[in-house]
Amino acid sequence: MSEARSEWDIPSAWEPAREVAREGGALLLIGDVDTGKSTLAAVLANDALGAGRTVAVVDADVGQSSIGPPACVGLAFPKGEIASLEGLAADAIDFVGACSPGRHLLQLAASAAALTRQAREAQAETIIIDTTGLVSGGVGRALKGAKVRLLDPDVVVALQEEDEVEPLIAHYEARARPRAVRLRPSRRVRERSRDERAANRQRHFASYFRDAREIERDWPPVENSVWTSGEPLPGHLRAYAEERVACEVLYAERYAEGVFLIVEGRPDPNGILRFADSFGGRVLAVEQASLSHLLVGLLDEAGGTLALAILEEVDFRKRRMVLYTPLADETAVRGVRLGSIQLGRDGTQLATVDLSGE
Fold it and tell me: Do 142 and 105 form a contact (C-beta atoms < 8 A)?
């Protein structure tokens, strides 16, 4: 046993989950923040490896990622004993778009499902899925319920001090699967402050972009926006839009439900409504400043995430963009998934943005 692992406090009550890991199966770990889910995941991975199982770890804690950068679900296939999840290099990532799941519930569930499916396709015998600490309220119940349906775990492992996650697992008692296993957190779990969590994200982002470079390319199809889904608006209609919204329109396109605008400055809300009435459809307007330093995912032909990038500049006339990314070969990029974080090159989160245009 490694020195780092020997310092862990592993409660004897964790044995039911450890036995599942040794036997093989998919384990979904849930619990509030700072309950030791990542430590438990490492313990279970080592137990499974020690039993001769092939192991996959899916890290779906987008706010405090251990495998891959923040705002992503990460996947790793450890080959030998690990001291922590932090020591695992990501074999795959899937970009969610934010470090908080609140506005990205569907994408987070989809990303976790995609990488869990990849782990199964790789014939992993034990799959350990770590999750965010969002366990309370309707949003927490919806997210964890969707993950159980999509990920289809054999066991849901609940870490709780008292009964804080019971609303998420009690109904599984009457079902054949998944089986619910309740565990107490380790005594050595330490609560981290908001500032510590932010510093940890900054450090991970900085490490990810350490060897990045600028690339310039034509803009590919864009996900998480209607941008690039329609046809450019004729010049006279763009000029009319400028009159109505009272600011410069840098780009305009007609899409299935109406018109999408990228504007310089803050558009007049009443002008947007008047333009929508005269045009007979919806009008979505996004401020150009929201795109500056935007964290995005670069996608391959199957929609998988090749790498992250910081969108630094957009030339709307030439339809080109400047990206800052560690991706070595951009020729495989077939799409861009927009996030909602503006990020500096040093990994500092500058702001969060809403690109819905609503």
Answer: yes
Give the model confidence (pLDDT) of 26-68 as tens digits: 999 988 887 788 889 999 999 999 999 999 999 999 988 999 9
CATH number, domain containing residue 149? 3.40.50.300
Determine the Cα–Cα distance for residues 234 and 10; give it in Å rounded to an integer.
66
**Within this chain, do residues 162 and 241 fall inside the same structural domain, yes or no?**
no
- Stated length of the chain: 358
Would you call 194 helix, strand, or coil by DSSP? Answer: helix
Backbone angles phi, psi at 17, to 5 degrees: -70, -40
> Which residues lie below 8 Å from residue 91, measured CB to CB, with a gap of 6+?
75, 76, 77
Same domain, 297 and 195: no
From 185, 208, 231, give the residue that closes a domain: 208
Range of the domain at 18: 3-208
Please tell me whether the overall predicted TM-score, pTM, comes out greater than 0.85 for this model: yes
Q: Are 305 and 223 in contact (CB under 8 A)?
A: no
Of 168, 188, 208, which residue is a domain's last?
208
Sequential DSSP letters for 19-88 = HHHHH-EEEEEEE-TTS-HHHHHHHHHHHHHHTT--EEEEEE-TTS-SSSSTTEEEEE---S--S-GGGP
Place of tokens 């070595």: 328
